[in-house]
Amino acid sequence: MEVAFVGGGIGSLTAALLLSKQGKKVTIYERNTRLGGRLAYQEGGGYRIDQGPTIVLLPEMLLSILEEAGIERSRIPLLECDPLYRIHYADGTVFHKWRNKRRQIKELQRLFPEEVEGFQTYMEDMEKAFVQGKEAFLEKPFLRKREFYTLRNISLLTKLKAYKSVRSFAGRYFRNEKLLDAFSLQTLYIGGAPFQSPGLYTLLPYAEHAFGVWYVKGGYAGLVTILEEELRRRHILIRTETSIEGLVMDAGRCVGVKVADGGEYRHEAVVFNGDFPHLTKLLPKDTVPQKAYKPSSGTILIYLGLKKQWVQAAVHQFFLPQELTHGLKDIFMKNKLPKDPSFYIFYPTAIDPDAAPPGESVMYMLLPSPPHGSVTWEDELPALVDHVIDEAEKRGFPGLRAAIQWKEVRSPKDAESEGLYQGGSFGIAPTFGQSAVFRPQIVPYPIEGLYAVGASVHPGGGIPIVMQGAKLLANHLLKE
Among 63, 72, 190, 421, which is least packed by CB within 10 angstroms? Predict the structure, then answer.
């Protein structure tokens, strides 16, 4: 079998490695000068930092898939974040999340003693649910709806209260508003609101405590270099700066790709690895019904190079406003920027001495935002950026503003111009109607020879989960 990948994101790279390991011929087409998709570096002023994903969850999933693809674990330099992260609340409370259960209980006893029992029950219940959920929803494609609607799956979905939101599910175990935030904000990692994402995604906050939060030394984007080196070592054909303008169809089957210069390349199978809603643009008109998808949230990203270090800082920190849900409703329901936003800070210098020049540091600030289309970024961004820098300086990084040597800002408008669907940073939104069986599948249409992988395709977003989707795809292609 000869397989073409349209787009060089992590889904394509992983599936290409898995297939090539089994002797299959693979070609990767990428319109940009580099591979990696959302995994990239932002560089300027002599500084470099991850442009997008930073939080490594489910390390065993990531490592085992790459090991299966022929990359030894020793080549992936993972460092565990301890604590997992800090949460700064508006009233000055600082809550640490820990992987060590005893340490987490001690932290709860310090701040929320009445919630210790709920946490212990949560961990016990979720341990069983995670094993079942991983097998049922992450390790299987749903090419036919009947494969999803089994008695076992329905029972598990009921147990996870999939018909309720992640925040509502957290309410079964916790009463304090601060802990409801702490055990539901993780849906923001995949572009969903805690009060809108179905209970199935409760597996995310549990996974942090069960398996830890990790950092790839040198930055998550460095993973792309390792994968690309292995692909080239295997003499896999990689065509960068090659834009695909359409798919070649023959008697209802996809048989190749059309490139921008008018040329055609024939392949037995074609895998689309862009944001899924863009796939229909490559197919002849009326080939498949058009469908509207809800995009994930966007992100505003503030990249900073700094002439000092904060030795007490954690790698990952969340700064929450007085009412997190109120601000998120502005974003997810009203499509506007909140006046008092929540934000996340990634500070790799806390764990990686090589992340910046000696005595200096890098960070990025991430603000959840509406996707592109409802905000005039040029008008609203400057004041918002200043506000967030002031808040970060006041609540966690004294002297921040005076230390800034380099600053760049990216908005959902920039994300859309780079091919992200409506400027959403995480593909399509993880709503009930766009999850599991309702999400696009690795065989997205009844078109022979056409497949899909990526953040908008089942099982969903997040680097390890996209890699798991690539494994599902590779296994399916090998069976065919």
Answer: 72
